[in-house]
Design goal:
Number of helices: 17
Number of domains: 3
CATH class of the largest domain: Alpha Beta
Largest sheet: 8 strands, mixed
CATH superfamily of the largest domain: Type I PLP-dependent aspartate aminotransferase-like (Major domain)
CATH architecture of the largest domain: 3-Layer(aba) Sandwich
Helix content: 40-55%
């Protein structure tokens, strides 16, 4: 490169003195990009650090620091008495259009597109933003009723007497006393048949679903999913490369006969039999037995997600599907996010014995083991009877909040939504008039400060009855009334919703 050409290239180098990024790093980044893109070719001599500092209005130390970093990374080489040169060992320079397919941020890292699997992960994000919840976000427990003082007392007592041994790595299956407490609780409250050795503690039921997809599915394996169904399960199975078979749900739950017609050789089925998500129906006994018989004959796995079955209002909680299983085909999932608080991030598997080891290894490769202190405090909470009392209180509270929700809807909405009180759970599926677009209605509600989810989004093909999913469990009577008034305004602009 000629001296004139080199001067023109250097003229394009600039630094921003108002930026919080150090000046030496800005200069390093500019020079590196000039070398990588071929504007500075191999063996090009750079100006001296003194001359470049004078041209750019920088201190000589700033330039020296940038040169030293580039030399350390192999971009520059210095010859005593001769000067500083672009190294001759660089490979053929890629065109800038190929080299920088993403943006370069202040750290100097070029952001490139993710892998095909990464793109699937990005496209499968179904979760709520981590912001303050507005009425009527669903899937959130009544955090205002969480026994915070009691939990702090239990945690404080444990911290004061914490053994140093518990500061090290824990069991990948989870804290043994907690696994014993979970096995006892599930046996008495959910009719689950298990020993503590079958329990594996994980960071919430979502991680449990992901691990199930990772361990049991190969690319192309068929999976029955409820249609409509839980987006988090759909996303996990899609990431694993599974072929999803949408099986319709009616008032008796998953239509097993339809699954058999669509794909009798599926590898796995994911179900929420005690309180179907999102339709809140309960799978009938005949369907449960039919599903278990199919799994036995085909060798398929049944993943039972029992996410909030404790909250039933017209009967005792329905016994688990796992408790009916005599063939070892059911993988039972549970979580304390809905019972207590999502921040605990504690969920669990109950696994057939032959799967315990492989799931434990898979869990350890992802998170080594769940946080120990939270497991210890939760163990005390269960063993001292606080969990059972909390569930009883919450069942009463949710019944009251459901009644407030229904009353407010009837008085404020004036027929804009058709709402029927479900027998279980903490959300409703509200039907919209046939011609109203649920997605447009949800966007309108959000603009007025109300959270909802359009029901068609939960069908695999994106189409379904026009309706909104609305949660009531996390909101007080006043919040519910205010939310209904806002929702009435949003839905009252009917001509905009068609």
């Amino acid at each position: 490169m000629t001296k004139r050409g080199k001067s023109l290239v250097l003229a394009t180098i600039s630094v921003d003195r108002s930026s919080r990024t150090p000046l030496y790093f800005q200069l390093y980044r500019e020079l590196r990009e000039a070398i990588e893109t071929g504007r500075f070719r191999a063996k090009t001599q750079l100006p001296s650090s003194r001359a470049l500092a004078q041209d750019l209005g920088l201190s000589r130390k700033t330039v020296v620091d940038a040169f030293e970093q580039l030399a350390a990374e192999g971009y520059l080489e210095s010859t005593v008495g001769s000067g500083t040169y672009v190294t001759g060992a660089l490979p053929e320079v890629m065109p800038a259009s190929q080299l920088n397919q993403g943006k370069t941020d202040d750290s100097g890292v070029t952001r490139r597109p993710s892998s095909p699997r990464g793109k699937k992960i990005a496209a499968a994000s179904p979760f709520f933003p981590a912001v303050k919840a507005m009425p009527f976000r669903h899937g959130l427990p009544a955090l205002d009723a969480f026994p915070l003082k009691l939990w702090a007392q239990l945690a404080g007592k444990r911290l004061r007497g914490l053994s140093r041994e518990l500061l090290g790595y824990g069991d990948s299956k989870g804290y043994r006393p907690l696994r014993e407490a979970i096995a006892w609780y599930l046996g008495t409250a959910r009719a689950v048949r298990c020993e503590p050795e079958q329990v594996v503690v994980v960071a919430g039921s979502q991680q449990a679903i992901y691990l199930t997809a990772l361990v049991l599915l190969d690319k192309g394996d068929s999976v029955w999913i409820e249609d409509p169904g839980y987006l988090g399960a759909r996303g996990a199975f899609q990431i694993a490369g599974a072929h999803l078979i949408p099986v319709p749900v009616d008032e008796q739950g998953l239509r097993v006969s339809e699954g058999l017609r669509l794909d009798p050789n599926a590898r796995l089925v994911y179900v929420t039999p005690s309180n179907q998500y999102p339709l809140t129906v309960t799978m009938s006994l005949s369907r449960r037995l039919e599903l278990l018989e199919w799994a036995r004959n085909s060798g398929a796995w049944i993943v039972e997600d029992d996410y909030d079955s404790e909250f039933r209002y017209n009967s005792r909680p329905i016994a688990s599907l796992q408790g009916l299983d005599r063939y070892g085909r059911v993988i039972y999932l549970g979580t304390f996010s809905k019972l207590l608080a999502p921040t605990l991030r504690i969920g669990y598997f109950v696994l057939p014995p032959e799967l315990v080891d492989v799931f434990s290894v898979a869990s350890s490769l992802i998170s080594r083991h769940p946080p120990s202190l939270e497991q210890i405090v939760l163990t005390d909470f269960i063993e001292q009877g606080h969990l059972a009392r909390h569930i009883r209180r919450m069942r009463t509270l949710y019944m009251e909040r459901q009644a407030d929700f229904i009353d407010s809807a009837r008085s404020e909405l004036g027929g804009l939504l058709e709402i029927t009180a479900p027998d279980a759970g903490t959300h409703v599926v509200a039907k919209l008039p046939r011609r109203v677009d649920a997605r447009v209605a949800a966007r309108s509600a959000e603009l007025h400060g109300v959270e909802s989810r359009p029901l068609p989004n939960y069908f695999l093909n994106g189409s379904g009855p026009s309706g909104l999913i609305l949660g009531y469990g996390a909101f007080t009577k006043r919040q519910t009334r205010t939310g209904m008034q806002k929702l009435a305004v949003a839905l009252g602009q009917r001509e905009r919703l068609l």
